[in-house]
C-alpha cells in the first residue's frame, strides 16, 4: 500500500491507489469469523407487539415525505415471527456468526425504568435458537431506534439520553450476557448525529448543524457509559461500530475536513481520548463545545476489545469554489463530493474495494492495538427472481472484490478478525424504504418468501473454505 493517511498529509490520490493484484486462491487466518448482519427496525416488524413502544423511526417513517413511498418498519421481514426460519437459512449457509440489534423500545418502551420482560423474551428465544444452530450471536445495542419518549425530551441532544442508554445496556446484558459474549454499543453514531440531527435525512429529522455535534458527543458519552456498565456486569468483549470512509482527494485541506468530520471525530475520542484539534476548530462556528464536561473523554475512551468497521465506499472530494455545504458535513462549503470513476451500485455508490484495504491499514497504523471486525460490507442491486433464483452477479463481484481487499489488509498487518456481510435479508433501507435490496437472501414482501441469491450460495462456499 503506497497511500498516505493521517499526520500532515491526508491525501490519497486515485492514481496512487493500487490495484488488488491477487486474484488466485486466498485463505483467511484460522478462526476468522464469517457471518451476516441485520438490525431490529429493518427486519423485525411486529411494531406494536408484546409491549414495544414507539421509536423515532416509527414517527419518522409516518412523516410524509421522509421515507420513500411512505414505507414503514411495521411488518418489514416479519422476522419477529419468522426468526426460526431465518436462523435455519443461516445454518444452511454455514454462517458462524450473526450480528443483530436489540430494539431499545422493546426492552424499555419509554426508554427508561423497568424492563418489559416480553420484549427481552424475544431476544432470549433468538439467542437460544442461534446457539442451538451453532451460530455465535453478536449484539448491537443501538441501531438507530431511539424510544420516542426520549426524543420528546431532546433525544441525543440531551445528555441524559447517554445515561438512559447505559441503564438499558445493563438491563439487556443482565438477560442475555450469560449467552452472548460480544457486544457493540452503537451502530454508526455518525449517521445518528449527522443524518439524524444535522441534516434531517434520517430520524428524528432535525436539521441544525450545531445539533449534529451535540448529538455526536452524547452518543459517544453513551457509548463510554455503556462500556462501563457492560464491564461492571461482566461482559466478555465490548466495542463500537463506526461507519468509516477513506477520503480520496488531490486537495489535502478538503480531504482533512471530510476525514475529520466522518472518521476522526469518532475514532479519536474512543481510541485516543481526545477530539481532533482541527475538527474542534472547524466546528467552532457552529458550537462552543460546552457540552463536553470534565471527565467525559476518560469515559468515552475506556478500553474496548474490538472496533466494528462498516465500509461501503470511499469519499472522493475536490475543492471547488462556490460549492454549497453538504448538510451532512457541516461547514463543507467549497468541497464537491462524488465523481469517482467507478462502477456504481443501485444506491449510486462507487464500487472501490481498494478503499477497504486502505482503511484497514490506516486503522492498524493510526490506532494500533484494537482488533478489527468488519461489521458491515455489502451492496444494493436491483435483483429479480427468475425461476426461483436470483443471479446477483453485481453483488457477488462486489463481495469478492471486498474480501480480496480485506485479505490484502490482513497480509499488510491489519488485525482483522472477521467479516459480516450486510445484509442477511433484503430489508427496510431507512429513507429508501424497501426499494433498495442489500440482502444475500431475497425477501418477497408480499409473501415473505425467502430466496437465497447466488451471492448467498457463493458466500456459503467462501465460509466453508475459509477463503476464496
Ligand atoms: O442498512 C444500512 C446499511 C446500508 O448502507 C445499515 O442499517 C447501516 O448500519 C449502514 O449505514 N448501511 C449503509 N451504509 C452506507 C453508508 C453510506 C453513507 C451515506 C451518506 C448519506 C449522505
Our measurement of the CA-to-CA distance between the termini, rounded to an integer number of angstroms, reads 21 Å
What topology, given as strand order, has the largest sheet? 1-2-3-4-5-7-10-11
The tally of strands reads 13
Ligands and ions found: ligand LGS
What share of residues are in beta strands? 5-15%
Query: What general outline do the C-alpha atoms trace?
Result: globular
Order of helices and strands: EHHHEHHEHHEHHEEHHHEEEHEHEEEH
Account of the protein in words:
Helix 7 runs parallel beside helix 9 (209-232), helix 8 runs antiparallel to helix 9 and helix 13 runs parallel beside helix 14. Strand 10 (372-376), helix 14 and strand 11 form a beta-alpha-beta unit. 38% of the residues lie in helices and 14% in strands. The longest helix has 24 residues, at 209-232. The strands form three sheets. It has an eight-stranded parallel β-barrel with strand order 1-2-3-4-5-7-10-11, surrounded by five helices. With 468 residues, the protein is α/β, with parallel strands linked by helices. Bound molecules: ligand LGS. Ligand LGS binds next to loops. Residues 39, 42, 187-188, 191, 243, 310, 312, 328, 376, 422, 429, 438 line the site of ligand LGS.
What descriptive keywords fit this protein?
single chain; alpha/beta; disordered N terminus; 8-stranded parallel β-barrel; binds ligand LGS; 3-stranded mixed sheet; about 475 residues; about 40% helix; 15 helices
Amino acid at each position: 500500500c503506497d497511500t498516505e493517511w493521517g499526520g500532515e498529509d491526508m491525501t490519497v490520490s486515485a492514481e496512487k491507489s493500487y490495484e488488488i493484484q491477487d486474484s488466485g486462491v486466498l485463505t483467511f487466518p484460522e478462526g476468522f469469523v464469517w457471518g451476516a448482519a441485520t438490525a431490529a427496525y429493518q427486519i423485525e416488524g411486529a411494531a406494536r407487539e408484546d409491549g414495544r413502544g414507539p421509536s423515532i423511526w416509527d414517527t419518522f417513517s409516518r412523516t410524509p415525505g421522509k421515507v420513500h413511498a411512505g414505507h414503514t418498519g411495521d411488518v418489514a421481514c416479519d422476522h419477529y415471527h419468522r426468526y426460526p426460519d431465518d436462523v435455519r437459512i443461516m445454518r444452511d449457509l454455514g454462517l458462524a456468526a450473526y450480528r443483530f440489534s436489540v430494539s431499545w423500545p422493546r426492552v424499555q418502551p419509554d426508554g427508561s425504568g423497568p424492563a418489559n420482560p416480553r420484549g427481552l423474551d424475544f431476544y432470549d428465544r433468538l439467542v437460544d435458537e442461534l446457539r442451538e444452530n451453532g451460530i455465535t450471536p453478536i449484539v448491537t445495542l443501538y441501531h438507530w431506534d431511539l424510544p420516542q419518549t426520549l426524543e420528546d425530551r431532546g433525544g441525543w441532544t440531551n445528555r441524559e439520553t447517554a445515561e438512559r442508554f447505559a441503564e438499558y445496556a445493563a438491563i439487556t446484558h443482565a438477560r442475555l450476557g450469560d449467552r452472548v459474549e460480544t457486544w457493540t454499543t452503537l451502530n454508526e453514531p455518525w449517521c445518528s448525529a449527522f443524518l439524524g440531527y444535522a441534516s434531517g435525512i434520517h430520524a428524528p429529522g432535525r436539521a441544525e448543524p450545531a445539533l449534529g455535534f451535540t448529538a455526536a458527543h452524547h452518543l459517544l458519552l453513551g457509548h463510554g457509559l455503556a462500556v462501563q456498565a457492560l464491564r461492571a456486569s461482566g461482559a466478555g468483549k465490548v466495542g463500537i461500530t463506526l461507519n468509516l470512509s477513506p477520503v480520496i482527494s488531490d486537495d489535502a485541506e478538503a480531504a482533512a475536513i471530510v476525514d475529520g468530520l466522518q472518521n476522526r471525530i469518532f475514532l479519536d475520542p474512543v481510541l485516543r481520548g481526545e477530539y481532533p484539534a482541527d475538527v474542534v476548530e472547524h466546528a467552532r462556528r457552529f458550537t462552543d463545545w460546552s457540552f463536553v464536561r470534565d471527565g467525559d473523554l476518560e469515559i468515552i475512551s475506556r478500553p474496548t476489545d474490538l472496533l466494528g468497521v462498516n465500509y461501503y465506499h470511499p469519499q472522493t472530494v475536490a475543492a471547488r469554489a462556490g460549492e454549497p455545504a453538504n448538510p451532512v458535513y457541516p461547514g463543507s462549503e467549497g468541497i464537491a463530493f462524488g465523481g469517482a470513476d467507478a462502477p456504481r451500485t443501485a444506491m449510486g455508490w462507487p464500487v472501490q474495494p481498494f478503499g477497504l484495504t486502505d482503511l484497514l491499514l490506516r486503522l492498524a497504523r493510526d490506532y494500533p492495538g484494537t482488533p478489527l471486525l468488519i461489521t458491515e460490507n455489502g451492496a444494493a442491486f436491483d435483483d429479480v427472481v427468475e425461476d426461483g433464483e436470483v443471479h446477483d452477479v453485481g453483488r457477488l463481484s462486489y463481495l469478492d472484490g471486498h474480501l480480496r481487499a480485506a485479505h490484502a489488509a490482513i497480509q499488510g498487518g491489519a488485525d482483522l478478525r472477521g467479516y459480516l456481510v450486510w445484509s442477511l435479508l433484503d430489508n427496510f433501507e431507512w429513507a429508501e424504504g424497501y426499494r433498495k435490496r442489500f440482502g444475500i437472501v431475497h425477501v418477497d414482501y408480499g409473501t415473505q418468501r425467502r430466496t437465497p441469491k447466488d451471492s448467498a450460495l457463493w458466500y456459503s462456499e467462501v465460509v466453508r473454505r475459509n477463503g476464496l
